[in-house]
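Standup notes
- DV: blocked on the single-chain target, sequence here:
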Amino acid sequence: MRTSIRRARAADSSLVAFLLHDFNTEFGDPDPAAAAFESRFGTLLDREDIVVHLAEQGGVAVGFAMVTLRPTPYFLGPLAQLEELYVVPSRRSAGVGSALLESARSYCSAAGAEEMQINVDGPDLGARRFYERHGFSHLDDGEPMFCYVGSTRPGKGK
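- DV (later): unblocked, structure below
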């Protein structure tokens, strides 16, 4: 089935919210609820520094990729961060994820970004292999890179 990719807008906030909620539920974290995501996406989707690409087949959303762009002193353009990439289980291994990733990369390149960063849970070997097949690495000069996560409140853990 043919996959089309388009940029999501505020009118798509419910659709993207349910996809993200399904993603989190599939991997054991059903919070926040889809309604909370919908409200947040309603304001995020029309920003120029946040881009969500939707994959559709036959008019049905089957996945999305969310990228944020932020300033950095390391490049003249922004730094891209792939925040989320999700494909519904029934459409996996059919090129949808690759199409979303390549669409996001093309957008970021056109926006002047020279680098895209992606955080992946260490045990998620499938995701790690997927990104490595697309030329991403968890190594910098041969050394492993890590992402540390913590609360903005001093003394609090994650």
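- Follow-up: The chain has a mean pLDDT of 94.
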